[in-house]
Write a structure and sequence with these properties.
The chain is α+β, with helices and mostly antiparallel strands. The chain has 6 helices and 10 strands; from the N terminus they run E-E-E-E-E-E-E-H-E-E-E-H-H-H-H-H. The chain starts with a strand and ends with a helix.
Length: about 240
Amino acid sequence: LTVRVPAAYYLTTTLPQTESVANGVRTVVGRTEYPAWLLSLIYDRDWHPMSSDVDGVRFETFTTSAFPFGHDTLAAALRRVDRILGARFGGPTPKYVAVVEDRLLGKRGLSVRMTDAVISGSDAAYLDESGIRGPSAVFGHEVSHAWTMNATGPASNMLREGWATFSEALVLGAEHGPDVEADFWNRLRNGYMLGSEGRLSILGNPDNGGVHYSKGAWIFHMFDLMLGDSAFDRGMREYI
C-alpha cells in the first residue's frame, strides 16, 4: 500500500511501514506480513512519531505530546506483555506493533486492534485497571492479538477475542498475582451467565459479539486447566 499526503501530516497504515518526504509530499509504504482482513488509515498533523526495538519487535507510536503515555512507558509495557506470553507460547508474531492516538475517538482509552496497531482515543488513562471496570489488562489484550490475528473459519472471532481475553488473565496473574486473576475469571463468568448463557452461541454469532470474549476465553481457560500448561502450551504453539 502506497499513500501520499501533504508532508505536514503524519499517517499510519496500521501495517509495518516506511516513509520518505520530498517536494512537500510524505510517501508512506505499508506492507502486510500475513493475510490481512482489516485495513485502516489514520493521520494527524500533531503526532510526534517514535520508533524503537523492543526485544526484536519494531515498536512505533503515533501520538501527540498530550497523550497520557510516552513512547518509553508503552515500550516497557509491551516488553512485559511479550515476555509473559512469549515464555509460554513463543513469539511474538508478527514482529511489528504500533500504538496510535486517534483523536477522532475523543475522550476514550485503548479501544481496538486494527491489523498491527493498537488504537486509542486521546484519554488512555490506564493500561490495566483494578477498579469498578476491572480487573482488566486492556493493553495486554490488544497486544496479544498478534498471536492469533490471522485466525480463519467459523470460530475466528473466538480465536481472536477469546484468546486475547485469556491472555489478559495471564498478564494480570503475572503482574498482580493469582487473586486478581481469579477475580478476572469470576467477572467473565458472571458476565456470561447474565448475558449470553442460553441466548447466544459462538458458532451462531460469527460477528464480534460478547460471547467470544467471555465464553471464548473460558474455553481456553478450561483447556489449560484440563490439559495442563505443558500440553496446552505445546498445542497453542503448533496452532500459532
